[in-house]
What we know:
Shape: rod-shaped
Radius of gyration: 33 Å
Amino acid sequence: MRATGKMLREYFSGVSIESLRRRYGYSEEKIRELASSYKRGEIDIFEVRDQKKIAMSELTHKEEVELLQMKIKSLEQALKMANIKAEGFEYMMGVLKEEYGIDLSKKVEAERLRHSKKDTPK
């Protein structure tokens, strides 16, 4: 079975049937039959140590997916809080402008211009 697995791995990687026939001694019909059996899940072309590596990588993949899902939920929550905070600031700025006549957006822009003129080399 070891040689069969190796031959099928080569077959699925693109090695010609003629080359495989000469190298392994199987007929073209037998090679196609074995490939078909593999596709139906009747035989496995990987060695036990490779099967263990595949299983471990799948487990790692599942863990990675769970971790990414948790990260997405965390980022969604952070975005929600940032949006709430931004809405709160906009509301407060609207109250300051309407009730007290203070327009912080103009003051912030004026401060930026004042600082940028100081930082500009002459």
